[in-house]
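Sample pair:
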Amino acid sequence: MGEALRVSLRSERLKQLLAHRLGNRLVFFLLAIVIGALVGLATVALIWLIELVHRIGYGTAGEDGLAAMIASLPAWQVILVPTLGGAVVGGLLRFMPGQRYHGIADVMEACALNSARMPVRSDLVAALAAGVSLGSGVPLGREGPAVHIGSSLSALVAEKLGLDHRHSLALLGCGAASAVAVSFSTPITAVIFALEVIVGYYTLWVFAPVVIAAMAGMMVREAFLGQGALFDLPARELVSMWELLSFALLGVVAAMFARAQLGVIPLMTGFWERLALPRLMRPAAAGVLIGVAALEFPHVLGLGIEGTQTALEGGFTATEYTGLFIVKWLVVCLALASGFAGGVFGPSVFLGAMLGGAFWSFLSLTGLPLSEVGVYATIGMGAMASAMLGAPISTILIVFELTHDYGITLGVMTATAIASTVMQLGDYGSFFRWQLMRRNVNLASGRDSSVLMTHRVEDLVKTNYAVVPPDITAGECSSRLGSERKLVAMFVDEAGVFQGSVSLAQLLSHSIEQGMDARALDAAMPADYAITPNTNIVMAVQSMAEVTVEFLPVVTRPRATEPLLAGVVWKSDLLAEHYDAVKRAREEEFGIT
């Protein structure tokens, strides 16, 4: 026992020493390099796992020539591979918290509400589920699993080193940036994405280590996977500035389809529920339908890199652009509604390219002078991705990094900005915020509220009140408060159960109206007017605003129907904590140390 205590004390002292040393920026930058490299290796391992499953199922590791390969395979194999993949994913879901896949939305929640802490026990299972899902041809992206794995690894390191909230948040951004950089060979986008979506603000303190981590990740990618643009395209330019109007319209159309996806996914989920199909069997059932769709439209399987490249080159007819967009849009909704593991950026790129091609085909009927179809496909790619991600800056940059095509800059910026704006007019603003809202997590109230929601009232609980029995009279209770010099009385019965609370002002008013012999409990606020020690500052302030009093009883509920008094929280303490939390948030945002 004594030896265990000594080991624990040494471990705690080591954490404190590391936390102190990591306050030095140079040391923290070295840690960012380590995180970038570790996450890079983890992301490379994920890509290799996807390729391994792909080779087992379809006979080829990459997506080059995938459509022709699928067309040459027997129909039963095309259907069987995603079906078996779904069965494996369904089996793995039982080991995940909530029996669901965790992705970028969970990383955002951890940054905003959980002090950059993430559960990591199920990460290996989640990685396996993502590898099987994407390797079996499910039409989702790999950026979501990569970011979640990288962020979880960063959170684990931060927790083991005992880092504070600011350093933990920066380290989470480092993991996300490295994951995106390795996934798509887009280091600039990786940095901006980590700051825009994950961390939520820009400051030199966070920016510098995130850049370093992204560079470390890129070095790992170059060593194991090589580098270069994901799509190989010639330089192109816009025919006329008047086309910016058509690009703006394309942005509107892309946003409308993105918003429609957020409505169709719950409908498909409801369809499974009406069939009374167990959640763990839904991926396999969806795999059958995805395989059937691939028989006619093989390009809809997998990441869709080959199909996107063909679309950007203008290699599809108007009918093919339209058909591929509709089928891919439906199977993506189906995959997300069924519980498959994967991200939304990859399919958004494919969908945007097809939508842009179909949009060009429609405009070409007017006889107006237009840029080539590949220009519209590229711009549509940015518009659709921006609408889904809710990250217009990152999307603009990633289009350029993926294609190395800077001649259509104004078109990409126009469509992306319009698509993001239209998406923001809805209730969610992005796919990730929509996911969080469905779990009753709202990040739309701003960073101040998010920071306050990470602070609990447990450290503000006081015991400066009088404890009185429920049958005490108003006169006796007033005397008790006066003799003990307290402003609040808490009613607790003989069994220790909390019955209600009353302030001295409420008690005096009740005594004047009903007399000194009236029961004091009749003036009390009910026992339901109370919070628990885990209540955050935002909820506590909202609860206090409902009644014009200066305090909130704090209770524990070891038995659901019998609250036990733990203490009281005062309004002045809540406001002081509110001020301190917002002040710390501002210091983080502006890099004040």
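The first helix runs from residue 2 to 21.
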